[in-house]
Amino acid sequence: MVLLLLYSLAFILPCLAYGAPPTVYLDLATVTGIESGNITKFLGIPFGEAPRFHLPLPVPPYVASIDATAYGPSCPQQLLSPNPLFPPGTSPTYESEDCLSVNVLRPNGVNVSSKLPVAVWIYGGGFEVGSSEQYDALNTRMVERSIALGKPLVLVSVNYRISAYGFLAGKEIEKEGLGNIGLYDQRLGLWWIHKYISAFGGDPSKVTIWGESAGGISVALHMLAFGGDSERLFRGAFMQSGGPMSKYYDELVRDAGCSSSHNSLQCLRKVPFATLKNAVDKSPDFFSYDGIPLAWTPRIDGVFLQDHPQKLIKAKKVADVPFVTGNMDDEGTLFAFTQSNLTTEEGFRTYIRQLYFQGASETELEGVWKYYTSIPSEGSPFGTGDLNQVYPQYKRIAAFLGDLIFHSPRRFFLDEVSGKQKTWSYLSMIQKSTPMLGACHGVDLSSPFLDDHFVNFVANLDPNSGSGPLWPQYTVASPMLYKFIDAAAPVTAPDSYRINPIQYLINLALKYPM
Fold it and tell me: Does domain 20-246+296-321 have CATH number 3.40.50.1820?
């Protein structure tokens, strides 16, 4: 009878084990995740404490069990202005100031001995909105694709504070050395990954940081952080639509009712969250008429960012890691919809004078009027003739914004460092026929044209797989782009599009940084 019982248990126990949820061990804690198809997810693991308007603090060693089966709360979001392309925005399901958490996605069956390469996703949203949870489908797609290609990876996403909560600027902030709180959140997340990712089957020596838009800018700024010291937290970087490139403090203080306080920063720390959020939501956002340049964005703080990004790049204070960077062709169209009141030549010129290149003379701005004309066929969406002119200055403003914010930083970055480290670059024409928008900002996330190249890069620090068209390195002697086109194989081409207007903007931005 005893033998029969033992024989039965031999079959029962494996079944019980098979049905058990996935777990990992961090310090003294058991972390329980969930399986989703061929992927295991560990979600909402706290990695830091986020005291209001203070730098983040690492969490103490884990001792209690952690339920990692759902995403944690998003960091507080800024309310965006209405945009005719989008329905009224809704905030993530749950926001909290206590929002610093990481999410780890890995293939099923991975264990501590797997030592897979690691991709770290930093979300975009203009440093005003965004959360890791919003990109669950993208991150899942990447892990699934890595499995299909036989190059499995572990993917980590990191929540960080945004808008004024993460990028408050002003004399009071400067006095306390508290600039770029959101970037410090990201950096603390990278330190957490360095310490704990091996428990999930990842290799801390094979980390690639990856982001799009503000996330791509963040990646570039981590390459410039602390004078270009990667602190061995990453070995590669992948930037999509992002590259390196305060009066609002007083307005926030006023709107939060802190103007009469002898210590306005301390007052902002103590006001009820609802009061603070109402004040933050009055700030310009990237869909506002004056929302670009952004109100709340990374700034020079003398520590994390020791100087203007352009000057750091010129001085070659850049982390010496391979990287990929690129853009959509029509990056500016999405942001040009809210300037529809600009219908005249003088209106366009006033807009540029008020918001960009502060201190530039009229003579210095002549090149802007010359290269960014009101002729529709010269504007963005590029190559569409007189079509897609939403309002009289639309294609002109779209061309200017796309070149200033996205194309000129990319080209400047590559021109300065491609002789120092391995680099690759792309230009995407995917979905060029989209009415009014063309090949616009964000398509590189919704369309999978980069997926295989990204997986290859995370695995081998090279976007090529050994088959298909060769993506050449970008060098000083041969600055070549990999161009993605609808319904066709990628092609290579010199990086010479709009060379004169983009160089003009580069020169202006070097003299009058935003």
Answer: yes
